[in-house]
Design a protein that fits this description.
alpha/beta, 2 domains, two-stranded antiparallel sheet, 8 strands
Length: 217
């Protein structure tokens, strides 16, 4: 019996992508003759999609934003997983959740090509029946539509779905979609004023929690 649907964010939830994202951002800044930014500053800009990341990193500089976004995408794709790692427990936890009967999906504001490349590199693609990137979604999180579209594909109702992420955009999207959220505090984001239904300090704890849940009818 299917237990329900678990929707995962990518950056800061399944993978620590800070170093590679920051390196690409600073390459863009160097292209425009700007000094590099500290990794922690760039990390604070992550979560709302590539366009917002680049716009924030340029800090009001008078450059062509569309060109800068294309540069960021190109630079990042050239070094997608130089320093990116899975969070502890992800590689072992996902197959356990799948075997337990959960449908698993990814909804991220990250572009689809980069998302799929990373999932395939870390041999995770097979666990997700759906992967929805920011360029394929009709609108980005925190709008609830990407979550609603994924629920529709899975054939589940709101009470059978959970959104798991590390950022306020994930939690807000879940609230607006009418589903419960789980916040992972080990990630790179922040919960803001949102109040998740559960908070986890490790992916192992998250896995154990959902494995112990009763099947949904």
């Amino acid at each position: 019996m299917q237990k329900g649907l678990l929707i995962f964010d990518l950056d800061g939830t399944l993978m620590d992508t800070r170093r590679d994202l920051s390196a690409a951002v600073n390459r863009v800044r160097r292209h425009y003759g700007l000094a590099p930014l500290p990794e922690e500053v760039i990390t604070s800009y992550i979560g709302d999609g590539i366009r917002q990341l680049v716009a924030r990193a340029l800090q009001g500089q008078a450059v062509d934003l569309e060109q800068a976004v294309l540069l960021q995408a190109r630079f990042y794709h050239q070094h997608l997983h130089d320093a990116t790692t899975l969070y502890p427990g992800v590689a072992s936890g996902l197959p356990q959740l799948q075997r337990a009967g959960y449908a698993l999906a990814v909804v991220t504001n990250k572009p689809t090509a980069a998302t799929l490349t990373l999932l395939e590199h870390f041999q995770l693609r097979e666990f997700f029946f759906s992967v929805l990137g920011g360029d394929k979604a009709a609108i980005l999180k925190p709008h609830p539509q990407p979550l609603r579209d994924t629920m529709r594909l899975a054939g589940v109702t709101a009470d059978q779905a959970r959104m798991i992420g590390d950022h306020v955009t994930d939690l807000e999207a879940a609230r607006r979609a009418g589903i419960r959220s789980a916040f992972v505090s080990y990630g790179i984001g922040r919960s803001g004023a949102e109040k998740p239904a559960a908070t986890f300090t490790s992916f192992a704890d998250l896995t154990l929690f959902f494995l112990n849940r009763l099947p949904q009818s």
